[in-house]
Amino acid sequence: MTEQRDIISTRGLQFEFNRHGGNITNLVIETEDGQSVRPLHAAPWTQTPSDLPDDVDLVERQLAGDFFCAPFGASEGGPIHGQTANGNWQPQPAAQGKADTVRYTLQQTVQGAKVEKSFTLVEGHPFLYQNHTFSGGQLDLPIAHHAMIHVPGGAQLSFSKKQFGITPTAPLETDPARGQCSLLYPQRFEDITKTALADGGISDASQYPFSQGHEDILILAEDKAATTGWSAALAEKDGFLFFAIKDARVLPETLLWMSNGGRYYPPWSGRHTAVLGIEEAATACHDRGDFGSSPKISQHGLKCGLTLQQDADKEIRYGFGAIPVPEGWSKIDDIDVESNRLTLMDISGESLTLPFLGSHFGL
280 near 268, Cβ under 8 Å? Predict the structure, then answer.
């Protein structure tokens, strides 16, 4: 399938959107003083996709940037991460009074639902606002945004308040000939700096990478009282600070996909290294250890996926941004989100306030 990419930009921010598969690539964010950052990852094989085996789904053939998954993960009879990450997105006219918003509609349906994607860009905001709207449909499905960064120099990770963390019931790779995982599966932990390893050790998973040649996943469960949640990765050596904001009531999990050379088969072939997926999700994994979905609120007070309804629209509001690492900063301590500004705070006590469209998140 031939790629069809749209260049979308405003002052200070530009990216490419691939209508086939729906991924965001080549994001560049520029500051007022002329500095720029390019935080998003692109897999090494995206330059030569024709060399890949025929059974590799489109989303993995062009693995890059950020894309929306519905349903998230493997699904019976469909491609991994669903049609939203493998199907065709068609541009739509701007809505009245929304000239700063670019809209697309998915040609395929997802469990009977129509899906609209929108990007909102604001001049001078180092942040890409996203919204997905499901109209109609039925049943329940796991969902997630799948933002990926590349941090060969390592990154310090920080998050909004969480209840706990877990690893899924089974590791990503179970055959040593195909790959290797470092974490213990399953486990529950209260502190990400004290996660159990399969060999009996303890590791600080807030420092990525914490090991070599591994492929791991862990899930952090949002505080049940939270309305907005955040994740941050400060990559000092690579020169950027990445941060994501979400509607925590709809996406109550943060999934960390740590891909650091731990898969040996194509297309990975041990060459997919220092990649971190910071994936804001809604699945049942925090509750029962798998990426399925349930219409019920979990025992921890969190949604277990998206429940579609024939007579209702469902919205998923999310966004991410990046800036150059401020001098002297080493790890984000907190992010304060308000109606017209966002304040990043470092553990040093220094802070930086950025313009922000809080109304995107109902603030």
Answer: no
Q: What are the backbone dihedrals phi and psi of residue 85, each rounded to the nearest 5 degrees, phi first?
A: -110, 5
Cβ–Cβ contacts within 10 Å for residue 64, how many? 21
Question: Cis peptide before 186, with omega less than 30 degrees from 0?
Answer: yes
In one-letter notation, the amino acid at residue 227 is T
CA distance 324 to 88: 34
- Residue 55: CB atoms within 10 A of its CB come to 7
b/e for 80-91, b at 16 or more Cβ within 10 A?
A: bbbbbbbbbbee
DSSP 170: S
Comparing C-alpha atoms, which of 252, 193, 196, 244 is closest to residue 220? 252
Give the containing element (helix H, strand E) for 61.
helix 58-61
Tens-digit pLDDT string for the chain (363 aa):
456 899 999 999 999 999 999 999 999 999 988 999 999 999 999 988 777 888 889 999 999 999 999 999 988 778 999 999 999 999 998 776 665 899 999 999 999 999 999 999 999 999 999 999 999 999 999 999 999 999 999 999 999 999 999 999 999 999 999 999 999 999 999 999 999 999 999 999 999 999 999 999 999 999 999 999 999 999 999 999 999 999 999 999 999 999 999 999 999 999 999 999 999 999 999 999 999 999 999 999 999 999 999 999 999 999 999 999 999 999 999 999 999 999 999 999 999 999 999 999 998
Q: Return the number of other C-beta atoms located less than 10 Å from residue 190's C-beta.
A: 9
Secondary-structure class of domain 5-361 per CATH: mainly beta
| SS3 track for 317-358 | EEEEEEEECCCCCCCEEEEEECCCEEEEEECCCCEEEEECCH
String of DSSP letters for 227-257: SEEEEEEEETTTTEEEEEEEETTT--EEEEE
3-state secondary structure of 81: coil
Instruction: Residue 85: name the closest of 37, 137, 148, 27 by CA.
Output: 148
Q: Which of 208, 229, 15 is nearest to 127 (CA)?
A: 15
| Angle at the Cα of 67 from the Cα atoms of 63 and 72, rounded to 5 degrees | 95
